[in-house]
Amino acid sequence: MSRNNRSRLENTKNNKPETSEESDLVLEEQLAGLEKLSFSAPTEIIDLPSEGKHYPEDHPLHNVSQIEIRFMTAKDEDILASRSLLKNGLALDRLLSNIIVDKRIKPEQLLVGDRNALIVASRITGYGTEYKTEAKCPSCENISEFTYDLGAATLKTIDEDELEQEGIRITGNNRFEITLPVLKLPVSIRILDGIDELEIAKKSRAKEKSKKEVNNDSVDLLRRMIVSVAGTESSDIVDKLANGMTARDAKYIRDAYAKISCDIDISQHFECSECEYEREDMGVPLTAAFFWPDR
To answer: Long-range contacts made by residues 144-148, C-beta under 8 angstroms, separation at least 24?
Structure first.
């Protein structure tokens, strides 16, 4: 038993309550003890799907296959609950900025797959590997509770030999060259990053407000994927191609992008309890709601 607590018991037994000066002294001693304590959160090393291969030479993650993050804290929860940050689509970026140990690394400069890996890892550090949410059956649209095991997530990395066999040539600095099947044009595409995600989300919110009937999301996405056409990086030429290419060429680019995308895979087997529909790759959007499924 500590001296202060023993003193209190003795005073109680003797029916002699502590004086105001004695209480202040005890409080000061307790506060002094708290100031000596350290509450630094632990950290964890996370494998990157990109393995650092597709960052430019001046990027801190160039050829770096892992990244150190801090465990989520109660303060980070406040960020994810901020209405203003959620409204502007900035909550996840602010969270990532807080948990990444190396402050040279900016969340918006991370490739999409690496960002996703950090988001999944941060949720695991905060709430464990079990993720309960609601899932809608793609067949009968019945909504039921579904539990993901985030600990079973796997990384999808790029196999350069396989890409070569698919007609995709890696030219460095996040550039991948393909030849369109219809137009026969050589086109260079890239993996999207956090800046692209923020811009896409911003445009999506603007479209919802304006309630435009014409949706050109596919064209916008192609513009961001395409870096150059026949060796030129002219934005005018890229725009013309994105707007005027055949559906077959557009699908070829989207399929090629799926092959070059290094990412984390948390999709799992799903079976509907109502219609017995089954799907092997039921995924979940990695938005701020990923941290607050019951809100």
So the answer is: 144/272, 144/273, 144/274, 146/270, 146/282, 148/266, 148/268, 148/284
